[in-house]
Amino acid sequence: MTKDRMKELAATYGKNEADTGNSAVQIAMLTERIKELTEHVKAHPKDHHTRRGLLMLVGKRKRLQTYLERVDLVGYRSLIQSLGLRR
Question: What is the pTM assigned to this prediction?
């Protein structure tokens, strides 16, 4: 993921483009990385190290989603809908 894409996600889901600590921004960034790694794992099925990293990212995103759901339910629902995640 490029720095421009990170700034774009931060501007879209955060308060400004430097707001990378926001839970919604972190979930959006993790979603982008998960999509990239999913394509890599499909192309390289024996790359178990990347698969483990992918599963760790999915777990981290799930924990952040649980936190955001507990703290801000309306924001959580809008984020899930805009990112196209199932949950």
Answer: 0.92
